[in-house]
What does this fold into?
Amino acid sequence: MKRVGVIGGGQLAWMMAGAAEVLGIELVVQTPSDRDPAVALAKRAGSAIASSIIFAPIDDAAATAELASRCDVITFENEFINLEALDSLVQQGVCFRPGLEVLAPLLDKYDQRCYLEDIGLPTPSFTTLEGEAGNQEVNLPKSFTHPLNLQNLDFPVVLKARRGGYDGQGTFIIQDSHALESTWQRLKYAPVLLEEFVPFERELAIIAARSAAGEVVTYPVVETQQVDQVCRRVLVPAAITPTVEQEVKAIAHKLLDSLQAVGVFGIELFLTASGKVLVNEIAPRTHNSGHFTLDACETSQFEQQLRAVSGLPLGNPDLKSGGAVMVNLLGYEHSQSDYLAKRQQLAQLSHTHVHWYGKTESRPGRKLGHVTVLLETANRAEAEAIAQTIESIWYSED
Ligand code: ADP
It folds into this structure.
């Protein structure tokens, strides 16, 4: 398969382009705005992203029909799609990888938790709150389907929008019943996921890929560090026991096999002080926690996704270095600067790769780029010190 359609033209599609060039694959992208990162690439001569960008919202199924007419298989860098609307394309023979039936239990955070529970994978205790929009009387759910005891909640709890949340938007740590009521009210009593707050010791993540032939490969387990629910750093590999590492890898295998998935998946997990592993979230696509693979692994997660969806054998996921640290360059102001001076300063650090997504506008929390530094050996303290150096340059005043 030589032409791969990608729904979404953000930085994930942008990072796929380098791998597409190497594999001789042409990318055709459906994305809403001509300021999206993958569009800038398309304008570059010789780019793997064809001039055929389809400008349309992610959930525009008519545009996806047009995308299908221009490529052999369609994959995703963004899952905010309209599954029902895409169903008719499948009837007409369009090939989605991962398939729509694989995405179906994953697009809603509550459905995702139910799926994990059904296949016996560990998750935080959870329920859903379903009220009536605009009904100010509602202060307890009309229905709940799981034994998280709502009458006697152990605060804090975590409330999450069931769909459309990302980078911590739509995730709220709730301290008491008053905050629960007011936060849900602010969400207009839309159905939400409510779950126990996990006092985790660390957050972990793993990227895994499954081919059409059913082969599964996993990348090294990493530690992710969040600030205000947004990923700031990824330390590679995670400093965990072999038992925890095996457990995380077994979770990844079981999940991808159960789903019969084809493609790359990012799985986020909590590790508690007692060594318990719980799945937090599954992304049915390449993931921020796997950006280090671009520079630090034999096969990047982006190449792996293209390999998986186009029917090629999977590549070697092993690290090429002893370790690595990835730091997100998050917007910290409203600006149109391209931060060239800071990027040049970062690029001077040794064994450092700076990736800049070319977004024309910066705003607080927006992912503008990332930096990966390769380490000779896995060393958490060294990785954290390097991350601090990078952040002190990036978040400095001038
Ligand atoms: P998003 O999809 O927006 O990234 P997540 O569900 O991954 O939302 O939550 C973002 C972050 O919020 C997590 O990485 C974690 O730091 C924190 N968080 C989410 N759920 C819980 C929980 N149940 N207990 C403790 N912290 C949580």
User: Anything to note?
Assistant: Residues 112 and 118 are 10 Å apart (CA to CA). Confidence is low (pLDDT under 50) at residues 133-147.
